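The following block was generated as part of the benchmark described in Methods. Ligand: 2-acetamido-2-deoxy-beta-D-glucopyranose.
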Amino acid sequence: MWTSLVCVVLVTSPGGASLPLVVNTWPFKEAAAAAWEALQSGGSVLDAVERGCRRCELDQCDGSVGFGGSPDETGETSLDALIINGDTMEVGAVADLRRVKNAIGVARAVMERTHHTLLVGESASAFAEDMGFPAEDLTTNKSKGLYTRWLQAGCQPNYRQNVVPDPATSCGPYRPGPGRTPHRRPPPTDLRAHDTIGVIAISGKGQVAAGTSTNGANHKIPGRVGDSPIAGAGAYADSSAGAAAATGDGDIMMRFLPSFLAVELMRGGAEPSAACTAAVARTKRHYPEFFGAVICANTTGHYGAACNKLPGFPKFSYMVVSAETRGPSLHTVDCF
Ligand SMILES: *[C@@H]1O[C@H](CO)[C@@H](O)[C@H](O)[C@H]1NC(C)=O
Ligand SMILES: *[C@@H]1O[C@H](CO)[C@@H](O)[C@H](O)[C@H]1NC(C)=O
């Protein structure tokens, strides 16, 4: 889907500096517009991040955010989200959230209405309902169809290894199998078509916030949580340095805290695009075949992105909005 959105005019040179600023992963233009609108109407950077993510949850961006996408091995959709206040370093996150559509709203409620940072699973759903979020079925005809076709295909592809019966040919239930295959085997290519909305917002005063929302990985094992709701992995923000957000193979990327790494490199003086490149390179050193991208912005409103080049993934697209862009503008970076 990201390849089909080429209608947006490039107004600024990549990396240009102007505050306030919104940057988000993928060509999720409506999300960028919603985040920008929040800032323009007097909202905080947290409001901008929440609105941007919320827009994608409602629009089911690419089927990879919000309800009705990425059914797990039982056919259920569950959601992960994260929000970070870079001024106070307050963080709220929710993972494996079931039956509640507004994951980013629940993440913000965790931040603002508890002293915790991360709530998960059924207990997170109970918390959300207590906080007034409606319980709804996240299943749609589309996610039912995805699940039915996966069952008909013998539960292929899936995320199992070293179990019996052979997960490459059979459905479960699985038991531990003999032996162990090399741990660097990348996930099957057709499981890689999952993205995440990650939003960075910086106010005119340099207040920084970041957040993510996703429905995780298609056909994931129930209970699986990726990088998106993990602070420092899916996103990171610190008003004294900048912000970053990541998208891609979360199971792999979360091992390297790419968003934290990028923000720390910017704190040390790295340009945003160099910080993003270094974060991708760190993961690539161990997993050359990983699918992923990182967006970065520093406190003066400079920004950049980087991605790992793969067959079929030569470029990564992201959205930028600032006073200079006069509306959401599509940016593209060549992967390396
Ligand atoms: C879902 O599928 C059912 C049966 O095929 C159909 O009756 C219903 O209108 C569909 N709903 C949507 C929202 O497409
Ligand atoms: C942000 O990055 C730009 C280069 O892209 C650099 O010129 C600027 O000094 C950086 N700002 C801060 C606060 O480090």
